[in-house]
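Researcher: For the annotation table, I need structure tokens for Lipoyl synthase, mitochondrial. Please keep the output clean. Sequence:
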Amino acid sequence: MANVTSQVVLHPAVSHSIKVGATTLGRDKAYRAVQNFARFYAWLLISRGKKTDAARWTALKSHLGTARKLLRLGKPMEHLQAALRAALTSAPPLEQITTIARQIAYFLYLSFDTFSWAQSIKFANFAPDTAAKISRLANRSWLAGILLSIVHAAVKTARLRREAKLLHAEKHKEKDLSLEAEREAKLRLIAATRAAVRHQFIIDFLDLWNPATSLGLSNLNDGVVGIFSVISSLMALEKHWDTLAAGPSLDDFISGDAPPDRIILGNPRGPRLPAHLKTAIPSGESFSKIKKDLRGLGLHTVCEEARCPNIGDCWGGKPGATEAEGRSAATATIMLMENTAEAISRWGLGYIVLTSVDRDDLADGGSHHFAETIRKIKQKAPHILVEALTGDFWGSLKDVSVVAKSGLDVYAHNIETVEALTPYVRDRRATFRTSLQVLEHAKKEGVRITKTSIMLGLGEKEDQVLHTLEELRKVDVDVVTFGQYMRPTKRHMKVDRYVEPAEFDNWKKVAEDLGFLYVASGPLVRSSYKAGEFYIENVLRGKGAENKAKKLLAGHDSTTLAAET
């Protein structure tokens, strides 16, 4: 019973609901939905002659309206700030003007609404004519803001349509593969932006009738206006829910832009960065060569986009290391299969890690693209060892099988953190148990090595980390890496603490004692950091370790091998 209760209480949906409810916007939209349902239901009861019952719902509507006004006391200043920020941007002139005007209109609406709130709680006592005038000014400002928002949406949609048309024209005229990935990324961004604009347009259209009816410009009854407002409130709440759930986009990850109302977990103050986590600026001939090849082929790497602290070490290496020893590992985002395979074959690498952002837009989560890219790499450079670092494919074991049977050498999927912190750290759709199932299924499909990664410094407890390692061994995971969680941008979780190197050493020993074939543990260790050194270090350790590596590559069971000395 306790286990069932904990599963319900700690369910990601419950955790996310708390996050949404903790924001002013989340509470306001939830209250507004109930308030307008009360408005609709009171009208329905009155139309059926049940005036006594309707009075309760009318009172509920009134009380929620007062509560919402209290919640929004600081909102006028937010809209004024938004207007000033818009004035400083370099947006197209008409879009900039409509944005500034809209924010000023909302500033006026909420400012007048503050006086209405003061009147409703008897803090101020205006004459009836004055109170009515304030109400009219508030509704006029609200209506103006909505109309400006609709005009802004129309102007922005027209611009985005023109940009998409130009990109499609370039795509048909020019066959340069190096620009193809960039064009596709721009088209996806435009499509997503247009969808967001359409969503807001529908909300504005539904909200329009509220002030219009109050000003006598529309003859819609309270029932219709109430239902319209309920729908628009739920749509706005859904948008806010998705914004918090989705977390940062790749563009946000790079730019560091942070939206308002973002929930920040972890240590609220944030510890100072210790000296052992500071790295040199990347440079060198090998680094420059890899970067030039990537740009020429239109490819992108997580190394750059996630600002990995080890990029200079991995890409630079020792003089001649990339060609002579083949010990560098690069992590390439899957964009174009042929270009990825071509780039990798040029560099003379011994080990490559392929990964991608979660492809929620694809039915198979990108599994077939993963598999085909791996096959093409093996065709062009059979000697290269390939690791695929995948998401959980929403728990679809069928898609896991597609990647696992592609001819890869290592299947990696990151558990990220301990089970108790998973709902707070990872996407709300990801679960600790699903990740274990992915790793277990990959092994059952014949993958020789499975691998995962754990971040420390998120607030995890020692017994929770130990439990995580034990669960990973139960599904026969071979390789685990430990690294320090580093906060990429201000909209991400703050670091709870910086873990000392000695603690990383301790976890390395604990994991090895549990039977993991290989453990990489250190503040700067990342899932893909010098991944190929696993094989090299096994050879350098001596005959016993070398035999272990050879047996593993020959297909022997890793659980048995881990116990050998």
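Researcher: And a one-line annotation?
Model: The first strand starts at residue 329 and ends at 333.
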